[in-house]
Amino acid sequence: MSLGKATAIACSNIAFIKYWGNRDAALRLPLNNSISMNLDHATTRTTVAFDAMLNDDEIVIGDRAANAAQRVRVVAHLERVRALAHIETRARVHSRNNFPMGAGIASSASAFAALSLAATRAAGLALSERELSILARQGSGSACRSIPAGFVEWLAGTSSADSYAVQIAPPSFWDLRDVIAVVSTTEKHVGSTEGHAAASSSHFLAARLQALPERLARVRHALATRDLEMLGNAIEQDAIELHLIAMTSRPPIFYWSPGMVRVIQAVHAWRGEGLAVYFTLDAGPNVHLICEARDADSVAMRVREIPEVVQVIVNAPGDAAYLTDQHLF
Ligand code: DP6
Question: Could you give the CA distance from residue 103 to residue 85 in angstroms, rounded to a whole number?
C-alpha cells in the first residue's frame, strides 16, 4: 500500500429540498431524501498527506490550526479513512475555501467532500462515487451531495450502505444561477448539527415529512422539464418550512435577520415586476436567489442595492469533487 499525498477540490451545494433531521445522528442517516445543486464558486481545496513521522494529526483550516470543535470532526473523519485503509498513520491536512470564511456560506459540505476524496487517495484507496458519498455523509450529511456533479439527490436509504447521493442531471443540463446575497448579521450562528437534533421537538416536523414525497416529485419533475416556476415555488415552500421547524423547535432556533427578510420581500416584489427569481435559505442568514443565467446580472445588480447585503457571489451548477496536483503544501 502506498501512502502519499493527495489534493481534492469540492463544491459546496445549495439544497432545493432540505436535509433537516436524522434518523441516526451518529451515522447521519437523514429523515428524508434531499435535492441540491453544486455551487461552482464556493469550493474547498484540501491536501492530505499521511506521514509516519507525525505523532498526531495536524490540521490547518485557512491560515490557522483548526479549533477544538473543527479538530474533533476532522480527526473522526480521518479515523474512518484509516479504518477503511487498515492504517494507523497520522496525517497532515490543509484546507482552504475560495469563499470568505465566516460569510455564513455552508462550508461543511465542500470541506468533508474534499477531505473524503483527498484522504482516501492519500491512503492509497480508490473509492467509487457511491462509496465516497457514503463516507462524506458521515462527516457532514450535506457533503454526500457534493461528491457527484451538477444536480443531485441524496437517497435517504435504510442503512449506511444505501444512504448516498446520485446525480439527477449534469451541470450543463440547466444553466441556473444561485446568486448568494451575503447578509450582515451580528447574531450568533447555531450549527446545523444542533438544528437536526432539535427538529423532532417541533410539532410541524411530521407535517413536513408527510408533504415531502409529493414535493420531491415536483422538484424532480421541475428539474427534468427545466420549469423554473414549478421549481421556485417548491423550493421557497421548503425553505420556509425548514425555518418554521427551526423556530418551533425547543429551544427555538432563529436564523432570521432583518436583512434576510428584506431580501425575501424584494424577491417577491421583483417577481411581481416580471423577473423570474426565487429564494431559498440555509441554516444561516444568507439568501440564495435562484434564477436563469440570463437574469443573473439583473438579480445581482438589484440585490447589491439592498443596504444589508455585504457581498454577492454568483454560482453556476458545479462539478463533481475531483483530484488535482495543485497541492496546498
Ligand atoms: C439547512 O449537512 O450542515 O443546509 O450533517 O450536521 O453537518 P451536519 O449538517 P449539514 O446540514 C445541512 C442543513 C441545511 C440543508 C441542506 O443542506 O440540506
Answer: 35
The average pLDDT across 272-281 equals 97
The pLDDT assigned to 191 comes to 86
Closest ligand 1 atom to the C-alpha of 14? Answer: 17
Architecture field, domain 174-315: 2-Layer Sandwich (3.30)
**According to the model, what pLDDT value does residue 148 have?**
98
Q: Where in the chain is the domain with CATH 3.30.70.890?
A: 174-315
**CB of 16 within 8 A of CB of 219?**
yes
Residues of the chain with CATH 3.30.230.10: 5-172
Distance CA 251, CA 13 (A): 28
Q: Which of 19, 180, 205 to mutate to test the pocket of ligand 1 (most atoms within 8 A of CB)?
A: 19
5-172 CATH fold: Ribosomal Protein S5; domain 2 (3.30.230)
d(CA 123, CA 96): 20
- Give me the residue label for grid cell 417548491: 234
What's the whole-number average pLDDT of the chain? 95
CA of 312 to the centre of ligand 1 (A): 22
pLDDT digits (tens, 9 = 90+) for 133-185: 999 999 999 999 999 999 999 999 999 999 999 999 999 999 999 999 999 76
Q: To which residue does cell 446545523 refer? A: 192
Q: What is the mean pLDDT of residues 204-221?
A: 98
